Amino acid sequence: MRSDPNIIVIGVSTGGPMTLKQIFSGRDPLNAAVIIVLHIASGMDRLIANGLASVSSMPVSLAKESETIQKGRIYLSPGGFHLKLEGNRRIVLYRGERVNYVQPSVDVAMQSLRKSLHGRIIGVILTGMGKDGAEGIRHIKGIGGVTIAQNQETSAIFGMPKAAAQTGAVDYVLPKEKIWKKLAELLKPSTSF
Amino acid sequence: MGDKISCWEYMTCTKSECPAHGRPEGECWRVPDTLCYGEEKPLLTEKLGRCIECPVFRRNIEDENLCINLTHFYKQLKENECRPDSLKEEVAVELSEVYEMLYKLSRGDFSARVRLASSTTMVTTLKSMLNDVASQMQQYVEDTHELAIGLCEHYETLNRICRNEFDARAAEDSSNELIAKLGTLINKCTDTLTSSIFRSEQAEEEAKNAYQQLLNIVEFLPDATFVIDGAGNVIAWNRALQELTGVGKEEMLGKTDFTYSVPFYGSRRKLLIDYLEDGADPTVWNNYSNIRRTHNTLSGETSITPISPENLRHVWVTATPLYDKDGNRAGGIESVRDVTELKRAEEEKARLEAQLHHSRQMESLMLKLGHDLKTPLTPLFTLLPLIRERVDDPDTQRMLDICCSNAQHIMNLSSKTMRLAGLSSFTGEALREALELGPAVQGVCLEQSEMMELKNLRCENSIPAGLFVFVVFDQIRDLFSNLISNAVNASLIGGVIGISARKRGEMVEVTVKDEGTGLTEEYTESIFEEFFKMDEARQDPSALGLGLSICKRIVLNHGGRIWAESKGLGCGTSILFTLPQA
Amino acid sequence: MIVDDNQYIRESVEILLQLNGTRLLNASGGEECLKHLQEGFRGVILMDIMMPFMDGWDTIREIVDRGLNDGNVIIMLTAMNEPTVKMDGLQEYVVDYITKPFNPNEFIEKLKFYVSFLDGVKAH
Prior knowledge:
Chain A is an alpha/beta fold.
């Protein structure tokens, strides 16, 4: 019986590149597959992936169609496509209508997750304008996941984290410096649900 | 029988010397010595014997019975002429009997009857005929009498009916059919008349009742009301009007000539009810404002001075004409409503609205100011540190430090003032949402956890699960943020900041308790004022003193209350406030 | 490039960047910004939001529609704490958001990050 990996989906927009760097820079790899949905135009996505790769201990790549996610890796959604996870394992990319005025949309990615029997599901909303991700957070909470939002002081723009917090489905509101620590804590096998 | 015919025509007799020839009245059989049967001149009786056989005689006598009787009589007469004289005596007696009978008849005694026994059948027949005549006359008289009596009775009955004795009944049975029918008809008429009268009496009764009911309704209407009839007399003056004017209905009922205006104005003048005709007197505009006419009703506002000249009341008046069933004007009804309080309230409202508008203007000015300040602050923030780096002189550096801090201070003031200005309106329900208090407060505690760790403080959130409040999310976040931050500032090293909540009626009462410096009685209210700082010297100079006033504004915006409790200096402080439940 | 209608702000930023060895191109509004881009400017653009005629969002929309965005990093530099809904649909073009007044050190740090970011572009 294969065990599903822990999955972390991070939604982030304006202020993303710096914040992500600050979160992952100089940290140990996380025991989870990390999917980052960033509101970015295509062209920039590669740069950001490279930038993040240069400081992170985890390998960073642009998510590819039909790829199976593995733990300990960071997958960045490419610009201009929606990303979905099939069976919590397989990446599906498609071009469709904008959701919350953006493509890729964090809601689309998060809402494609299903209840996991073995692995943890964690949703994170970082700095950004708008309210993409709020419904995704609600969904993750609904399937038994844990949710984190970045706090106002450390957010370049508090829009998305605030919208997520307003759903009432956010478990933790944290400054960016504490986010990695909380993730690591949540992923420890001894941590009870 | 045929038409009467003259003998000369029938017989085609040309004997003009005959006495019957050409006789205008005909009846040749009564004429003696006619030449019908030759030159003979018979005796009358003999002639008669032949005449009765003659077709002329038979054609001329119409009544066949009479013809037969006469024939028979003449035959008898002829026979008697041949008898002896002694018989003439009997005849004379019988004739006198007949004479007697006739005499009685002529005197109107129709009950007379003559003895039938006679010497000859001829006389008997005659007598019998006389008796028949008498009976007929008697019957005729009786019938006429019966008719007369019947008519008199009916006359009497009709008379009585005319005198309103409607129980009078005419006799419906009578031997005379006409009288009987007349009696029935009279009774029918009487019945129709009585039922008609009854209905009209009933209608009158109903009308009276309805009228009384109307008066009762008018009497108990909540609005002061009076009614006048077509001649301007007061016919109703209700209780409410009595209370308003101090003048009772006993004084006003029946009065006319605009007396009804005296209780209102102290003198006689036209009231609205008097302006009801179309093409009304233009002075109505002098006396009343806001005049409106809907169909027949006129309404307007005016001021009156009932009871005493100093008692000025502002009233709203409505007057409507009343019409009778033919559509003629039959008076009017006027209602007076004291709207003095209402008017005051409206004026107050207008004043408050103007105030509110002014405040809103001020607030948006403040918001604009706060925003606009950021622009000139930017160069200060950018350049002052740069200048500081360029100078070596410590005094200059110190001066620049002061400049930097104060630029920061301006920034903070402007931020918080903007926040205060943005908070000032009572938040309508549309902006609010149901929020579970426990987790929301937990989030704020987490944000402040670093600060708390520095002082080794612990946050104890004992808000029960499932407790929801109906609030604006951002504002509540700020509220708790401020309060917890204050609690942290007030606390000494180590200790607990406790947050609890419980239901209180329709609100939720929240307590934020610290174990820090505490308050004295005199400060428990003033700490919520803008820019208040308890200890100017000791406190952090960057604290603005706006935190609690912002908290108060947020709580008030949600319709709650906020207050502070403390057992004294060094005993910690509890800030309590209420929020609406969801 | 800084796009801001306030002269003092442009000057302060210019001075700050000069001291840190970076050149700054000035634009007082959307029109001038587009002109510079058409003349070939590529780099970090600091965009004010509240400007007369064309505001920050209108300008970004124009830049994207004219295909002038490639090779640029747009950072909002504004007094508004929270953007209005005009930002909807433009999130992917705005890489960061700095509120005025800002801390100069943090400002420089961010700028350096994004400049080096774009060096990555040039490296490609």
